[in-house]
Amino acid sequence: MSDFIYLASQSPRRRQVLEQMGVRFELLLPDADEDAEAIEAVLPGEAPATYVKRVTGLKLDAAVARLKRRGLPPAPILCCDTTVALGRTIYGKPVDERDARRMLRELSGTTHRVLTAIAAQHGRKRLAALSDSRVTFAALTPVQIRAYVASGEPLGKAGAYAVQGRAALFISRLRGSYSGIMGLPMFETAQLLRALGLPCNKTF
């Protein structure tokens, strides 16, 4: 049994969570010719939970093929995807600052969902889980939104904010998994890796 996993994600926050868990990992990132963005396209009428689980499964399919193509040693592969949802509206990563401001205006003063799906595979065994949390934003002023977007933090983040960053100033209530909102739910990840037989931190 391997004593490490492959993480198929470029997110530094997910690396941070794995390090906090005491899990050894190596990155298994897409090749230059892989269209990683196309995987995240939303299908017409797709519900947020269905979307995030489907995208995570596609990411895992691509990572498994990548591992075989590169001839790398076998080890569990972990993939994740996070999305923010207000009702059935899905908020992915903003395309630019204007888009980030729009998202924050729409999330201002609301309680929205943050869904993080995870999937792991080792050999033929594949497991998946979903973390579903609620985040309540205070009402944001236009000045607050402009200043936050100008900080650069919202870019590259689902819903245009990072719970572990300055956006914490806007959050009046949080229910669910803090690490899940960051992008990798510790509890569910530990359950999956333990089920795959990974000898991790003894606290597992």
SSE topology:
Layout: E1 5-7, H1 12-21, E2 25-27, H2 36-39, H3 48-70, E3 77-86, E4 89-91, H4 97-107, E5 111-122, E6 125-137, H5 142-150, E7 171-175, H6 178-182, H7 186-195
Parallel strand pairs: 1-2, 1-3
Antiparallel strand pairs: 3-4, 3-5, 5-6, 6-7
Write down how many β-strands occur, each being a DSSP E stretch of 2 or more residues. Answer: 7
Structural class based on helices, strands and sheet pairing? alpha/beta
**Count of domain modules:** 1
Count of helical segments? 7
What is the CATH class name?
Alpha Beta
Write the element-wise H/E pattern from the N-terminal end onward: EHEHHEEHEEHEHH
Largest beta sheet, briefly? 7 strands, mixed
| Radius of gyration over all CA atoms, rounded | 17 Å
The outline comes out as globular
Mean pLDDT: 94
Please name the CATH architecture.
Alpha-Beta Complex
Kindly identify the CATH topology. Maf protein
Weakly predicted, low-confidence segments: none
Distance between the termini: 16 Å
Tell me what portion of residues adopts beta-strand conformation. 15-25%
Estimate the helix proportion, in percent.
25-40%
GO cellular component, one term: cytoplasm
Keywords: Cytoplasm, Hydrolase, Nucleotide metabolism
InterPro entries: ITPase-like_fam, Maf-like
Subcellular location: Cytoplasm
